[in-house]
Amino acid sequence: MSDPLLQASGIYKSYGHVEVLKGVDFTVERGEVTALIGDNGAGKSTLVKILSGALRPDRGEIRVAGRPVSFDSPQDAHALGIETVYQDLALAPELGSAENVFAGRELLKPGLLGRLGVLDRKTMRRRTQQAFIEMSTDVKDIDAPVAALSGGQRQSVAICRSVMWADKVIFMDEPTAALGVRQTGRVLQLIRRVADKGIAVVLISHNMPEVLQVADRVQVLRLGRRVAEFRAADTTVEELVGAMTGALEGKAA
Amino acid sequence: MSDVRTAAPAGTASEPAGAVPPAAPRSPVRRFLSSSPAYMGLVLLLLVALFSALRPDAFPTAATGRNISLDISVLLVMAVGMTYVMVAGGFDLSIGSVLVFSGVVMAKTMIAIGGDGPLVVAAGIAASVGAGVAWGLLNGVCIAVLKVPALITTLGTMGAALGAAQLMTDGNDITDVPSALLTITASRPLGFSWLVYVAAAVALVGGLVLAFTRFGRHTYLIGSNEESARRAGIDVDRHLIKLYAISGGLAGVAGALSLIRFATTTISGHATDALQVITGVVLGGTSLYGGVGTVLGTVVGIFIPAVLQNGFVITHVQPYWQQVVIGFVLIAAVYVDRLKRRRRERS
Lengths: 253, 347
Ligand SMILES: Nc1ncnc2c1ncn2[C@@H]1O[C@H](COP(=O)(O)OP(=O)(O)O)[C@@H](O)[C@H]1O
Ligand SMILES: [Mg+2]
Known about the structure:
By secondary structure, chain A is α/β, with parallel strands linked by helices. In chain A, 34% of the residues lie in helices and 25% in strands. Chain A has helices spanning 44-51, 74-79, 97-101, 111-115, 121-134, 151-165, 181-196, 208-214, 237-245; strands at 6-15, 18-28, 33-37, 59-64, 67-69, 82-85, 169-173, 200-204, 217-222, 225-231. In chain A, β1 and β2 (18-28) form a beta hairpin. The mean pLDDT of chain A is 90. Chain B is mainly α. Chain B has 14 helices and no strands. In chain B, α2 (36-54) runs parallel beside α13, α3 (62-87) crosses α12 and α5 packs antiparallel against α6. The radius of gyration of chain B is 24 Å and the shape is globular. Chain B starts with 27 loop residues before the first helix and ends with a helix.
């Protein structure tokens, strides 16, 4: 059997003398949606920041497809095809979808104009439009400022941006937390389509039914450790909540 | 997996009908027509039409055009720099003082070199721009690296640059300038002063770079959401330092222009420059909150007060009315900007 796509072992992280992660192990397999659940303050966001290069661990090892890596910045992770949809969207509200999708990775015109730094706006718009169609998002006007879109559409823009640049893993920190039922449904469909493209998705969520609906595997974090791992098809909300709260120290799958 | 709640959002799970292809975007022309620069451009045209109708003999003349364009050229050069800074969500109060400081440095440099001729003037201009860039870099480092708020930093350098200029001159204007300067002032290709051409060139280049290059795009991204720009891998601190250096450098250019025009350093004449410039930039649709603005709008916004001023003089209205009117128009413009943002964010 080949190495997991992403494997973290023995990750430690402290803020001051508060130890937030105490030797976390975490695995991501290709083409799967892996849910990462845990109570508030369990360390989920911290773990995701470490795995996406936004934060450095104090100790521990991260391997991508078997090879040890160390990330100094999110850009190092980007270079390996690892992208993140942050909890607080991180879009530029005054700019359009294409501008956001290509933020920091703008395409330049060929030739002299490009060397002068002139943007290739046409190609960026076209590729954004393609990605939106491919991902079946409901963002209709890619020139409209992102602030004019609905919460779900904004989340779609953020996810599509990650999809365009990731070819291995996308971390999504509570992507549905601020959304209504309909929009949540759309985003979950989108997550499923991303995974079906062969990109691994790590989904942080508080919503157990949602986790069971969309995830292939569930890993539970509690007090800075991974305490349980389940196949979504073989578990129940009760079991997940039990593992999260510590009422049940289980290990399946 | 027997939980009923799992079924709630699942109804849509396999519904490809959710795939709505992005529709044709609003045409760029319509988008432009609903923008602040377009509205303000209309206001500007109406003003010109109004004054032309009131005084057809005096207002719509080449002389008026020359006067107005000469009057605004120094402010416009600084306003281009201010547009960059404000699009990035910043602020630069120091430009008027930096203008004065740069002009003094230019005059001193030319005196130190001695003699006359275009080379002396060129050296003076280079020193003036260099002095402006230096103040700009200082602003940028304080704001981007030391994280002192832009308002306070540039309030500080506004005082410091003016004080330094007065120290260098004992508070007296330098009027001892090479006669080559006067040659520049006297020559007027196609009737327009060289100052006007310089201002037009700065506005053209500044406008194109802001609208069409990666540098410009990063400026918008930073102003719209600094944190997201950082996460997108943009070196925000470096970019901000560059923007303040540009603003300072253009204040240096303005200092040179001012010295060339008046043949004196006009130390006490620029206390309100920054406020006039900010007024024009904001009238032209640049948002105080960053992320929005164009140089074209700034050009319009700088023209409006100047046209009002000239128009009032020609129509024998007390020109003090200009300040009253512009004050209220400014408040109205920012109110409309806020309304637009609120309406958009409600959706
Ligand atoms: N920058 C920080 N400085 C200090 N403590 C932090 C910081 N970020 C997170 N924490 C603490 O670390 C713990 C885990 O936080 P987090 O990873 O955000 O948990 P989760 O996402 O699971 O809710 C919390 O107790 C939180 O207060
Ligand atoms: Mg969190």
